[in-house]
Design brief:
By secondary structure, the chain is an alpha/beta fold. It contains 13 helices and 19 strands.
């Protein structure tokens, strides 16, 4: 069976869905691997390395997809590429179907069997193929690095003959995978770090990394027991806003990581809070692509407010650390396929009764099979 990997066509997407290491393992399963020329260049993988791993380099998407049974991708292919995908092909990618109502019907109409890895249930068995966690981890690291670059003073306490430079005060909003990595990275750089999350369990995780915990503890937050935060009530948001207002004003760098799966990001840092910050302060908004946790964030841009606060609203944060994120993402894809690989048939076997397949399979045989995307009756 032929597996195709294409050059990503989304603007600003620098990742690739395979590495030489995963290519070798895919070939070990009995697959032939076709990679579009230049697919890995932005992730520091030249064609020669793919060739050395045993892949075939082809000139364009059409050549890669000709006769393919499986397609690995970072993001859902656009309409032009979907037209080239043979019916019955298994597409494994981060589809983003929850934010694009037209995608699932289009995939079904093209008879593409599509797996959205971002939809995998958050269970132990799925951890090694959890693309949200692998990419968020690197995003949290990158957020601190970019915040430090823009911060015009310095991160650690510096004592010199000419005087002392105080350490940066860093506040991380959201203590999921990205937030915890941001806390750990900011601590390594020497910052005075605090963090918050609506989930009580995050309190000990924040403190275990050497940061101070700041949060609203009430009955509603006590119900937040899952690995990801759920939607909160207006009353809770009011309490949170009061606490955030005093905290944000005291910090030099605020890193926003709060996301609710499949929904617009909650606005936590208001315009009034931004106005209260000192000139030269930095806000890094990892939720920018989902609208932003900061009211003043401009998705895709870095702006400076009238009071001198710089707000970094990059989209697609994993792509800003493309070499490492490609390595982890490609490994997630390989692990998923390996788990559902029939060694005798040398083909994938997506068992419909399996919890992972129930959670991640969006289309199959020309039908939308995922309950979240089926059209209303």
């Amino acid at each position: 069976m032929r597996l195709a990997v294409l050059k990503e066509r989304r603007a600003g997407e620098l990742r690739v869905a395979a590495t030489p290491d995963t290519v070798k393992k895919l070939i070990g399963l009995g697959l032939t691997v076709a990679i579009e020329t230049g697919a890995g260049i932005a992730a520091a993988i030249p064609d020669a390395e793919f060739i050395a791993a045993g892949a075939e380099i082809v000139p364009d998407a059409a050549a890669a997809l000709a006769g393919a049974g499986i397609l690995f991708a970072v993001a859902a292919p656009d309409e032009a590429v979907r037209a080239l995908i043979p019916p019955g092909t298994l597409l494994i990618a981060t589809l983003g179907a929850a934010s694009d109502a037209t995608l699932a019907p289009a995939l079904a109409a093209a008879r593409i069997d599509a797996v959205g890895l971002e939809l995998l249930p958050r269970i132990t068995r799925a951890q090694s193929m959890d693309v949200l966690s692998s990419q968020a981890n690197l995003s949290g690291y990158r957020a601190v690095i970019e915040g430090a670059y823009e911060f015009s003073r310095g991160f650690p306490l510096m004592m010199t003959a000419a005087g002392t430079v105080a350490p940066a005060r860093v506040f991380v909003i959201g203590a999921g995978v990205a937030g915890l990595q941001a806390i750990a990275t900011a601590r390594r750089l020497g910052g005075v770090v605090s963090g918050t999350d609506v989930r009580p369990a995050a309190k000990e995780e924040i403190k275990s990394l050497g940061a101070s915990y700041i949060g609203v503890d009430d009955e509603e937050s006590a119900k937040q027991t899952g690995p990801y935060a759920g939607q909160m009530s207006d009353e809770f948001r009011k309490k949170q806003a009061e606490l955030m207002a005093s905290t944000v004003a005291k910090n030099d760098i605020v890193i926003c990581t709060a996301l609710v799966q499949g929904r617009k990001a909650p606005v936590i840092v208001t315009s009034e809070m931004v106005a209260s910050m000192k000139p030269g302060s930095i806000i890094v908004d990892l939720a920018a692509e989902a609208g932003g946790n900061c009211a003043e964030t401009v998705p895709g841009e870095t702006i400076t407010t009238p009071n001198g606060v710089k707000i970094i609203g990059h989209k697609n944060w994993p792509s800003r650390i493309a070499v490492a994120s490609s390595q982890l993402y490609a490994r997630n894809l390989l692990t998923f396929l390996t788990n559902f690989w029939d060694k005798d048939a040398k083909a994938p076997n997506l068992k419909p009764e399996d919890d992972l397949i129930k959670g991640a399979l969006v289309t199959k045989g020309g039908e939308i099979v995922h309950p979240n995307f089926k059209p209303a009756v």
